[in-house]
């Protein structure tokens, strides 16, 4: 087998292998500190030349010397460990043997050699292997011709014998990837993936740079402690978690802060420069509050660099979050419907004050609104809702100081900047405590003068750290890491040599550091800050080079970075913010980022290339690939590869934005449509996506997929997390188990009081937790049992634990749990473990489930002495009704029938009579269900007899062919429910009988012939068998039969039109079944189909087809003949739309399509109606009949003839409502009789009496009473009177009134001022179009344009389902008429979202049909055509998997 290494990368890979071999010795050192004094990698001492790859000095002063040789392809005979390779030499050169022998013999003669060896992945050839005994060459076994060559090279027989007696040839070592996994397994219990990544980067530095670590290049134990210690500094927590060792910077400040917030109402702004720990202090503050005395809610504009949620900046999302926190803290708070955030907080405050408590609201990270370029409008809305602060409330704001113009107006009014509270720096005692913690962890290589006490030395170093940091936490960490990683003994002078931060502002430290850094170090930082992604640690050399300047550059900035398993990030986000603010940042980034782009293009693993190449190209100025590259097919491949779907959404977001910037509107539509499907799959089809994701990750050829998913753990579906744990290498599984349990427990806690989270979803989280614990190396059975019993869902939770334990090979835990627990679902999994392990139930004794009927059958068949019943149960309850149970919903027919069968089988196997095993009431003895029960009894008898006579367990085919029950042909819900239950019971029984067969014979499988026989049964159903295989996760088929089942079922699905969610589920299960049966190619085919379905047309209430239809009709009206033909070509898609969706929300689209065809192809009307009537699609035929009078057909003689046959009231009403020519209308009235009077349905909202109307007129405030400047008072007065403006005419009337009075300019100014008031927004938006009209008259078109933009944004003008067609089109027509030259400006400026819509995650709102309408209005027909084509092409791709034949009339 070959290798995948590029020729240019082989040298680099060889060095990586050498580093890993060195790591073996270093891990020995870390595990046994007394073994070595020091270790050197690439020793520079000449005495070790040629055996200097790894030199280790033992505690007794002797040396272990190791030379490493890497073979690119160890299995290639050309790279074998053979004599020719060892003895080959150029005419003037020396052989490897000569190179090694000289230093080895010299060290040996000096009495300093403990061990000398070669370590290689090469494999010995046959001749060399014969010379070996263990790892030593036996000189006498060397062939004579070879011996002669050796003596000639080494100079003497004695020298040769001496060398081979003391030199080990350690061959056939693991390949690079396996060696790394093995080493990680050795250290995983001591550190995390970030510690391992940091160690590897340090090792590279030690191997390449002189005197690293300092002072002499010798690696000592403390250097390993610094890398691996769990006490090493981590990035400061940005979420709500407070570090365990956190100390407040100053106790007196903390006390004052608590008193201020807890005792006074008002606003407190806590500020500090970056890196001082504002968020951590506020988290500490919140954690110390007494919930009995205080209700505290919090929003953080920035959690961490991992957080990708856009909603943190949107007012609506923030309001929902704060309201949800209030509901959780105050379960009995009854919030009025449609209350604003301010009203909700006011209501909550009144309640807490009445209870003797206080309400505290914390808004943290406010500066990130400005820093990340977010629109301040949403922040203004938030603070307008929070201020003025209501009694009993204190608002705490955490922020950096930024320009007042970038801060919310009301906040500055309530809390002027001069009154802000600054968070102090750490005092001296706090710094001393932190340094002492690092020293206790072994990370501080403390220098001590002779006779100097450790306490004094530590105090001196602590003073030095305090002196340069002034107590700034981030600077303290940076400085400590810088001196610690250098490896030298730490002295006060060494500390004071670090860049200082006298101002307490970390930006001053960064500025000073930049002056000290090498040009290469600074360039690397600018590249990292400019990239949209964080490169993985293993790519740093590729991105920045392996020359000395690059390696040293990385070394000098290493303390600023956080090395994670799959990414290198800034230790603190303020670093990259500082760099991006540097005027030279962009030019430096562009000058130095080309190698990173080259890595993505040529060497990066597939995930990074797919997720980041196009984005990085665009960042460097070339966005063409980003715009044109992402396609639906690419998206399917991305998900099929197992990559996180939110990374796909990120690429599409960037692509959509890039396309919009160059006004490629068709590409914008393409990317948005695929993105929306991805979002829907992520949010609306959790189960299907998780199943697909698991199979994709399992099948992926990308070895980095599990690591990528681990890095994205917080965004994974709960059901995927246990699967991720299973597929993770054992070396990393323990740490992942802890992370996963913490993550899932956090979700359980977070969602416990969420009204939208059902018990089933909470159960899913609980089952995921125990499924993860099943993979733990610790015995977690007792813990899981306690957790399950306290959950209320013990059986299903323990079943999940049992299945997961079986899948990871931990069946012992299942048996241990089985000793103290029994339950229907758990016992089923316990039974499977017994069968698959070939154990009898008596083996792992005692099991509480010993009486489970299937387990009893297994025990009897295994020869156990199992007690059984002599008679079956009385099934009167099953027949309490006429033909079945009295309450079909409360009676488990399936379970009763199954248990009765297994009990009868156990009795029959034990030799007891089972005829008429159960008692059936006389009145029901002839019922179909009674016959089914008796058929099961006969099946039990036949199986037992067959086993007794042949000792051959029945096959699946035998079970179905021997069951002689008859299908139920009776129609009706009850009858079919009974049939389905019996069918399921037979499937259950057949599956468990196959398991017993496996338990009796490990070779028992379902072959093709047996499977074919089973499928002839009327009770067989592929779907039920597939459900069984995938829920139980057991492979029962042999390879041929598994392939037959999956392939034929896939073919059956391909020929059937089904709803897309069901289709996705079926294909996903087929992929899982194929994977479980080791059919990777078949699994990949099914997986691709499943992903295609996930990105297919929405199965419920998806109106995209209506957008397509509307777009086509618009283009037809604009004269596009291609659109007309496309309309007809899509007949199959629209005709069958209610078959591939559930019809809810799409049936009207089918009717509208028939109407469209009738409008543009009148010759198709007759055959279309004929087709609908033959198919008995009466609803659609009737809808079409009702639309015909409004179509051009109505003006023809044929139409008149048709309408003269209309006799139904709704048909005659349709004729009356049609705008017919006068002569045709007269003729029709003569034929169909007098006019039909029809009454519009009463508006159910228009119920107020005449008296109430008078009251409205009498009490409604008049516009004239509220002049400009008093608009907000007008709205407030209407609210006080509870006058709801149904027509939304108040603003329009007010504007028109004051405009007529000559005060239109002042009225517009007042209206504009109210736009920042969230309580006025709803009322104002209804008058923005009127404002545009007045602005055009008073100020001209330019000013009117601004109001039209505001109106289109506020009224959701691009979203056809959020505002009326007439209103939006009137506005678009006005823009096209008066502002045609600025149509692009209008589109750009109205793309800003008013709401945090899911599809607008990149800050873009773009219409589909309304944009097409606008393009036709401004004369951009080619753009409109391209946009329409994008919609049509996407629609056709989404439904391409369905076998949709065109109807005959098309």
TrEMBL record:
Region (Disordered): 1243-1269
All copies of domain NACHT, residue ranges: 273-411
SUPFAM superfamilies: P-loop containing nucleoside triphosphate hydrolases
Compositionally skewed regions (Basic and acidic residues) per UniProt: 1243-1259
Residues in the signal sequence: none
Gene3D superfamilies named among the record's database cross-references: P-loop containing nucleotide triphosphate hydrolases
InterPro entries in the record: NACHT_NTPase (IPR007111), P-loop_NTPase (IPR027417)
Protein name according to UniProt: NACHT domain-containing protein
Biological source species: Rhodobacter aestuarii
């Amino acid at each position: 087998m070959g290798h995948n290494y590029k020729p240019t990368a082989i040298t680099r890979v060889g060095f990586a292998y050498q580093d890993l071999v060195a790591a073996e010795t270093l891990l020995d050192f870390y595990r046994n500190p007394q073994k070595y004094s020091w270790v050197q990698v690439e020793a520079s001492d000449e005495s070790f030349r040629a055996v200097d790859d790894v030199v280790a000095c033992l505690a007794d002063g002797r040396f272990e010397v190791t030379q490493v040789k890497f073979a690119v392809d160890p299995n290639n005979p050309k790279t074998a460990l053979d004599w020719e390779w060892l003895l080959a030499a150029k005419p003037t050169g020396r052989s490897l043997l000569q190179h090694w022998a000289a230093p080895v013999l010299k060290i040996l003669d000096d009495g300093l050699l403990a061990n000398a060896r070669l370590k290689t992945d090469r494999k010995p050839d046959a001749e060399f292997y014969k010379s070996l005994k263990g790892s030593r060459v036996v000189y006498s076994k060397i062939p004579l011709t070879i011996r002669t060559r050796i003596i000639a090279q080494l100079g003497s027989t004695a020298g040769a014998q001496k060398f081979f007696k003391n030199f080990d040839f350690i061959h056939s070592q693991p390949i690079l990837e396996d060696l790394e996994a093995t080493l990680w397994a050795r250290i995983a219990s001591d550190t995390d993936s970030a510690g391992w990544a940091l160690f590897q980067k340090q090792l590279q530095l030690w191997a390449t740079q002189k005197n690293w670590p300092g002072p002499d290049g010798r690696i000592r134990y403390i250097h390993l402690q610094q890398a691996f210690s769990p006490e090493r500094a981590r990035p400061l927590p940005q979420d709500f978690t407070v570090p365990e060792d956190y100390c407040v910077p100053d106790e007196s400040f903390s006390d004052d802060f608590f008193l201020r917030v807890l005792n006074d109402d008002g606003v407190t702004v806590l500020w500090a420069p970056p890196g001082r720990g504002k968020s951590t202090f506020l988290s500490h503050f919140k954690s110390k509050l007494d919930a009995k005395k205080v209700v505290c809610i919090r929003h953080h504009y920035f959690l961490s660099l991992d957080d990708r949620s856009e909603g943190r900046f949107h007012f609506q999302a923030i309001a929902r979050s704060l309201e949800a926190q209030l509901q959780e803290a105050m379960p009995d708070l009854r919030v009025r419907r449609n209350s604003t955030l301010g009203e909700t907080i006011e209501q909550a405050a009144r309640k807490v004050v009445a209870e003797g408590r206080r309400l505290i609201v914390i808004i943290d990270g406010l500066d990130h609104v400005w820093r990340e370029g977010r629109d301040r409008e949403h922040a203004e809305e938030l603070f307008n809702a929070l201020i003025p602060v209501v009694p009993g409330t204190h608002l705490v704001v955490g922020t950096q100081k930024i320009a007042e113009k970038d801060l919310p107006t009301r906040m500055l009014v309530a809390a002027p900047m001069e009154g802000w509270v600054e968070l102090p720096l750490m005092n001296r005692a706090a710094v001393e405590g932190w340094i002492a913690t690092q020293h206790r962890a072994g990370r501080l290589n403390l220098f001590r003068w002779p006779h100097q006490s450790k306490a004094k030395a530590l105090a001196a170093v602590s003073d030095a750290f305090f002196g340069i940091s002034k107590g700034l936490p981030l600077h303290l960490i940076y400085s400590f890491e810088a001196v610690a990683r250098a490896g030298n003994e730490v002295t006060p002078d060494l500390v004071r040599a670090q860049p200082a931060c006298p101002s307490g502002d970390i930006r001053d430290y960064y500025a000073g550091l930049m002056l000290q850094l090498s040009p290469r170090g600074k360039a690397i930082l600018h590249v990292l800050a400019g990239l949209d992604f964080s490169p993985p640690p293993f790519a740093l050399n590729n991105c920045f080079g392996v020359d000395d300047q690059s390696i040293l550059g990385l070394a000098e900035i290493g303390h600023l970075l956080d090395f994670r398993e799959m990414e290198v990030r800034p230790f603190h986000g303020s670093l990259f913010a500082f760099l991006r603010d540097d005027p030279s940042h962009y030019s430096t980034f562009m000058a130095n980022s080309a190698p990173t782009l080259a890595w993505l293009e040529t060497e990066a693993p597939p995930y990074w290339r797919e997720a980041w190449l196009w984005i990085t190209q665009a960042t460097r100025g070339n966005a063409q690939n980003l715009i044109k590259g992402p396609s639906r097919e690419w998206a399917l491949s991305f998900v099929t590869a197992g990559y996180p779907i939110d990374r796909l959404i990120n690429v599409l977001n960037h692509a959509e934005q890039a396309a919009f910037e160059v006004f490629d509107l068709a590409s914008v539509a393409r990317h948005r449509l695929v993105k929306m499907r991805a979002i829907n799959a992520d949010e609306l089809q959790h189960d299907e996506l998780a199943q697909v994701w698991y199979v994709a990750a399992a099948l992926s050829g990308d070895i980095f997929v599990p690591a990528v998913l681990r890095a994205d753990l917080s965004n994974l579906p709960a059901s995927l997390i246990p699967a991720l744990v299973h597929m993770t290498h054992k070396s990393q599984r323990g740490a992942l188990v802890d992370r996963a349990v913490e993550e899932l427990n956090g979700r359980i806690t977070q969602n416990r009081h969420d009204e939208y989270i059902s018990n089933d979803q909470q159960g899913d989280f609980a089952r995921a937790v125990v499924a993860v614990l099943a993979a733990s190396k610790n015995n977690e059975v007792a813990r899981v049992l306690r957790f399950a019993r306290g959950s209320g869902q013990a059986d299903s939770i323990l079943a999940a634990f049992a299945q997961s334990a079986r899948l990871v090979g931990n069946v012992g835990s299942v048996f241990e749990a089985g000793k103290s627990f029994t339950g229907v679902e758990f016992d089923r999994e316990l039974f499977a473990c017994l069968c698959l392990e070939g154990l009898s139930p008596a083996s792992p004794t005692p099991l509480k489930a010993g009486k489970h009927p299937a387990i009893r059958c297994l025990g009897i068949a295994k020869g156990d002495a199992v007690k059984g019943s002599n008679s079956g149960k009385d099934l009167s309850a099953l027949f309490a009704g006429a033909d079945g149970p009295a309450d079909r919903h409360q009676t488990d027919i399936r379970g009763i029938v199954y248990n009765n069968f297994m009990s009868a089988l156990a009795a029959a196997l034990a030799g007891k009579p089972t005829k008429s095993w159960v008692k059936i009431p006389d009145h029901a003895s002839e019922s179909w269900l009674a016959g089914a029960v008796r058929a099961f009894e006969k099946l039990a008898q036949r199986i037992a007899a067959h086993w007794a006579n042949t000792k051959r367990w029945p096959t699946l085919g035998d079970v179905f062919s021997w069951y002689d029950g008859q299908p139920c042909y009776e129609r009706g819900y009850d009858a079919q429910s009974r049939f389905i239950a019996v069918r399921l019971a037979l499937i259950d029984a057949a599956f468990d009988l196959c398991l017993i067969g496996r338990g009796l014979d490990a070779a028992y499988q379902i072959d093709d012939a047996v499977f074919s026989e089973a499928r002839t049964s009327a009770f067989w159903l592929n779907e039920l068998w597939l459900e069984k295989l995938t829920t139980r996760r057991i492979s029962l088929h042999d390879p041929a039969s598994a392939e037959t089942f999956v392939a034929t079922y896939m073919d059956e699905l391909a020929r059937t039109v089904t709803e897309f969610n069901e289709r996705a589920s079926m294909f996903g299960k087929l992929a899982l079944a194929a994977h479980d049966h080791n059919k990777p190619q078949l699994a990949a085919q099914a997986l691709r189909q499943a992903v295609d379905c996930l990105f297919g047309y929405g199965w419920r209430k998806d109106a995209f087809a209506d957008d397509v239809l509307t777009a086509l009709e618009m283009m037809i009206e604009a004269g596009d003949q291609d659109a007309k033909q496309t309309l007809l070509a899509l007949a199959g898609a629209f005709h069958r739309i209610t078959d591939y969706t559930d019809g809810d929300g799409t049936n009207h689209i089918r009717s509208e399509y028939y109407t469209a065809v009738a409008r543009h192809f009148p010759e198709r009307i007759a055959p279309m109606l004929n087709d609908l009537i033959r198919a008995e699609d009466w609803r659609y035929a009737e809808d079409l009949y009702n639309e015909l009078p409004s179509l051009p057909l109505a003006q023809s003689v044929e139409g008149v003839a048709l309408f003269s046959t209309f006799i139904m009231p709704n048909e005659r009403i349709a004729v009356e409502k049609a705008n017919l020519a006068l002569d045709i209308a007269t003729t029709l009235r003569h034929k169909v009789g007098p006019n039909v009077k029809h009454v519009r349905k009463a508006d159910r909202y228009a119920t107020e009496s005449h008296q109430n109307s008078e009251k409205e007129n009498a009490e409604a405030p008049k516009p004239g009473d509220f002049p400009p400047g008093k608009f907000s008072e007008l709205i407030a007065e209407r609210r006080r009177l509870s006058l709801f403006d149904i027509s939304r005419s108040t603003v329009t009337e007010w504007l028109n009134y004051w405009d007529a009075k000559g005060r239109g300019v002042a009225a517009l100014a007042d209206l504009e001022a109210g736009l920042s008031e969230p309580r006025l927004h709803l009322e104002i938006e209804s008058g923005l179009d009127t404002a545009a009209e007045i602005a055009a008259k008073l100020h001209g078109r330019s000013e009117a344009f601004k109001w039209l933009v505001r109106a289109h944004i506020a009224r959701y003008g691009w979203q056809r389902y959020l505002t009326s067609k007439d209103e939006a089109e009137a506005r678009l027509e006005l823009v096209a008429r008066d502002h045609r030259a600025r149509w692009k400006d209008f589109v750009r400026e109205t793309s800003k979202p008013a709401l945090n819509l899911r599809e607008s995650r990149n800050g873009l709102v773009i219409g589909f049909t309304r944009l097409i309408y606008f393009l036709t209005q401004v004369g951009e027909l080619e753009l409109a055509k391209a946009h329409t084509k994008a919609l049509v092409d996407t629609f056709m791709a989404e439904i391409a998997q369905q076998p949709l034949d065109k109807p005959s009339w098309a």
